[in-house]
Amino acid sequence: MIAPPDRVLTRVDAAMRTARAIADKGIGTMLALLMGVAVLNVLWQVFTRFMLSDPSSFTEEAARYLLVWISVLGAGYAVGGGMHLAIDLLPSAVAGRRGAVVIMLLIDGCVVLFALAVLVIGGMKLVATTISQGETSPALGIRVGYVYIALPLAGAIMIFYAFLDALERLTSRGGDHKGGTDPPH
Amino acid sequence: MSTFHVLILVIVFVALLGLGVPIAFCIALSTLAAMILALGVEGAMTTMAQIIANTDSFVLLAIPFFILAGQIMNRGGIARRIIDFAKAIVGPLPGGLAFVNIVSAMLFGALSGSAVAAASAIGGVMSPHMDREGYERGYSAAVNITSSTTGLIIPPSNILIVYALVAEVSVGGLFVAGYVPGVIVGLSLMCVAGLIARQRRYPTTPRVPLRQTVRRFFAALPSLGLIVVVIGGIVGGVFTATEAAAVAVLYALVLALLYRELRFTHLPRILLDSATTTAVVMLLVATSMCMSWMLALERIPTEISEALLGLSENPVIVLILINLILLLVGVFMDITPAVLIFAPIFLPITDSLGIDRTHFGIVMILNLCIGLCTPPVGSVLFVGCGVGRVSITKVIRPMAPLYAAMIVALLLVTYVPGFSLWLPRLFGYSE
């Protein structure tokens, strides 16, 4: 591996940090909004049943779709934050930085493999078939296929973060960069 | 053929887990490998995407709401009021602050659906306090960790919702079933803590005058009122579990704002934190559903059921075997995938032996709670060590007698179905 000059590394480093900050902000805001809407949605269901004694027809369906979006987008976001539960005995036990980096890269690879095969490719196929079958949701009247776009989107987010993590591990050498190999929290 | 697919699944799972791949991804990739062998590449990818997209049940939405309510309570000064109240009641007893920690964890568990929330909320306040009174740090953390798991047995509880979904039993019935067993775990832990306190001469807290006790009760009352709203609402048929959880969010929020410990500007952060916590749990749920589907395709539940019943048809012995298997599973697996993968495997067995599904659910959760307090996979252990500022190795030894207490509680709950079924019967949930 030929080490690129420091100046280039610093610029790459800065670009990666900006990209991560923008993604964190965008996806984070969206997740907080979805979560708030989910709560208000179910409270509205309770309110309409008791106060207006005219139960809302769309809330249950909306709640289920919101759950899908929160779950998969959040799973993507959690890859960026290193928040998925793992047994990290091996990466922390391996002597030497190089060995640890190789293991961490393999782990990133596993994340990408799942995201690509199941969420992006499997998800796209699911979206395509559901849209072509023309299935619409009974209460909201939206095409169910559009709801499932959350899957490929979440897969893309996972791949994006896994690549950023991998790049950071490769470009930060000997711990002289503050970015380091630790996942940011 | 089928054994080969499952063998591949197990090998890939163990290899990835050892490598340090996040657990949800280990489950997903090992399932994907086995599914590719069974259904081909394209079939495997679309089937998994389909199962993941289908984990959208309305009942599961209670989970993010209870997580959110727990996070609000965590920061909203509710934990402190509960601890003050518990201190007035059990502080002067022989177990001192360890008793206070256990009772507070049980009360907090009755408010929020999560053991991790209880471990951080109660442990965060109690551990510096116990430090000052001369309690050994590892022991304080061990008490906090084990007692926090009662939060999963005492309703509301997110894991009970997950079990209700796979076992197709009523969430309300399962919720009320958890009260007595949860209190049994708490009391067993208190027995051990009392003995240890006497042996090591840990101090008790001074007796609180009656008027002060009453005042603290009224300070904690609005928080405890949440129990009436949530559980009363569900049992009384006023709300579904999901609606009750949304109401709990509103209730906790109003309380925290009234106590002036939370501002509206904190809300986006809290919403985001609970969304990501939810997503981490839900990815485990979705991937475990895939693995469970795959195991069912290979007829694994039937085969294990036949093998176990071939060994013995005596319910006492079968329950011992199931408990031993689950204890081992709990050591290596987080509680959510363990419930989703093993409940469908064991339920045909317990059904054929005439064991009530609600009773078995409580046994299963209580058993897996022990695994949450053991390395290498123990989310409550990690959080408890974090807030207690102590390393895992220092907690294991003081934890040993508390593990024993939990196992005694497990045996009691396993072999006396009445502990789990008395309340559900009282409220008309089961025969």
Descriptive labels:
heterodimer, A: 185 residues, mainly alpha, 6 helices, 73% helix, 0% strand, disordered C terminus, B: 431 residues, 80% helix
Can you give me a brief rundown of this structure?
By secondary structure, chain A is mostly helical. Chain A has six helices and no strands. Helices cover 80% and strands 0% of the residues of chain B.
Mean pLDDT of chain B: 91
Query: What general outline of chain A do the C-alpha atoms trace?
Result: elongated
Straight-line N-to-C gap of chain B: 43 Å
Runs of chain B with pLDDT <50, length 5+? none
State the shape of chain B: globular
Biggest sheet features of chain A: none
Please state the structural category of chain B: mainly alpha
**Percent of residues in beta strands of chain A:** under 5%
Euclidean distance between termini CA atoms of chain A: 30 Å
Largest interface, C-beta closer than 8 angstroms, per-chain residues = A-B, 59 and 58 residues
Helix content of chain B: over 70%
Low-confidence sequence ranges of chain A: 174-185
The Cα radius of gyration of chain A reads 21 Å
Query: What is the helix content of chain A?
Result: over 70%
Characterise this structure.
The complex is a heterodimer of chains A (185) and B (431). Chain A is built from 6 helices and no strands. With 185 residues, chain A is mainly alpha-helical. Chain A is elongated and about 65 Å long. Helix content of chain B is 80%, strand content 0%. In chain B, helix 9 crosses helix 17, helix 9 (158-167) packs across helix 18 and helix 16 packs parallel to helix 18 (357-372). The longest helix of chain B is centred in the first third of the chain and has 31 residues, at 23-53. At the A-B interface, helix 1, helix 2, helix 3 and helix 4 of A face helix 1, helix 2, helix 3, helix 13 and helix 14 of B.
